[in-house]
Amino acid sequence: xxxxxxxxxxxxxxxxxxxxxxxxxxxxxxxxxxxxxxxxxxxxxxxxxxxxxxxxxxxxxxxxxxxxxxxxxxxxxxxxxxxx
Length: 84
Hints:
The protein has one helix and no strands. The chain is an all-alpha fold and about 80 residues long. The protein is about 95% helix and about 0% strand.
């Protein structure tokens, strides 16, 4: 086997190796894109859940403040009535 044949064989091995590396890289890149999409979907879902929770908590805080004000007003009326 001459040097030219060995050079050609090495060249072909390098080409096959590059092709195999490229295919592997493409598979890894696609898997990473898939995981990134899943992560993004999770972040969006968490954001929606947090917004929903915040709205619920705001409504409950308003209701609690209203109840406290009503109870406070009733206590004031009772104290005024008892003190007269």
